[in-house]
């Protein structure tokens, strides 16, 4: 799954830890998503989309 989570996070000048705190996961989870080593749950994908005020498809694109 392709993601532009890193770019969106950096545009808001958020660290992985800060974003993780906002969506109630660990920094390691954000890191794993950004490195394409973990696909987020639907609940987490919605939380991230809500935070960035966009659709899930704007952040995550299936390969």
From TrEMBL:
Task: Tell me the superkingdom of the source.
Answer: Archaea
Which organism is this protein's natural source? Halovivax asiaticus JCM 14624
Per UniProt, the keywords (alphabetical) are:
DNA-binding
Q: Which PANTHER family match?
A: DNA-BIDING PHAGE PROTEIN, TRACRIPTIONAL REGULATORY PROTEIN-RELATED-RELATED
Keyword DNA-binding tagged:
yes
InterPro entries, sorted: Cro/C1-type_HTH, Lambda_DNA-bd_dom_sf
An example of a GO molecular function for this protein is: DNA binding
Q: Does the keyword DNA-binding apply?
A: yes
Where do the HTH cro/C1-type domain residues begin and end?
A: 14-59
Q: Which SUPFAM superfamilies match?
A: lambda repressor-like DNA-binding domains (SSF47413)
Q: Write the protein's name.
A: XRE family transcriptional regulator
């Amino acid at each position: 799954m392709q993601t532009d989570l890193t770019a969106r996070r950096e545009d808001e000048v958020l660290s992985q830890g800060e974003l993780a705190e906002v969506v109630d996961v660990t920094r390691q989870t954000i890191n794993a998503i950004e490195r394409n080593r973990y696909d987020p749950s639907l609940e987490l994908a919605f939380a991230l989309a809500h935070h960035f005020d966009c659709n899930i498809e704007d952040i995550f694109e299936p390969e």
